[in-house]
Amino acid sequence: MESSKVSAVLFVKDVKGVAAFYSQALGMKCSFNDEYQSVLNCCGFDLTVHQIPKHIANEITIKQPPERRLEGAIRLSFPVRSIEETRAIARSLGGELDDAPPAWANSNNNDFLGHDPEGNVFHVSQHTY
Asked: Which spans in the chain are helix H?
């Protein structure tokens, strides 16, 4: 698979579930998938959701609801058409989108934090596109 643009890889325990989350909740389009990975696109950015090897994944426990991984060095940001719709879909798929913006957000911004079904934190803002 060739790539000449900025992209990211998210290593997960449940590739199908997490890929479905990003596709349905955040409107990402799938350009490739197999049993080990799904490549999702948003505004020219590719996110590869990659299966952690089973022997390692079997040792990982994800609580329900999942605990947010707040200490990650990178947080992905996504434009969405509707905060309310994204919040409802995220919750229906085992993730979360906060009801209130984070303390650092400008009061005029429409910035919210959330997490996927495995606790990976992301940011969304509502845009018209």
From this structure: 15-26, 54-57, 83-92
**In the sheet where 45-51 sits, what is the strand order?**
7-12, 45-51, 37-42, 29-33
Beta strands 45-51; 7-12: pairing state = parallel
Residue ranges per structural domain of the chain: 7-54+62-126
Q: How far apart are alpha carbons 105 and 117 in whole angstroms?
A: 24
Hey, what amino acid is at 106? Answer: N
pTM: 0.86
In the predicted structure, residue 47 carries a pLDDT above the cut 50: yes
Strand 111-115: give its sheet, edge to edge: 76-80, 121-126, 111-115, 96-97
Q: Which CATH architecture has domain 7-54+62-126?
A: Roll (3.10)
**What are the CA-CA distances from residue 23 to residues 20, 53, 62, 90 (Å)?**
5, 22, 21, 10
CA–CA gap between residue 43 and residue 128 (Å, rounded): 13
Task: Find where tokens 């989350």 sit.
Answer: 21
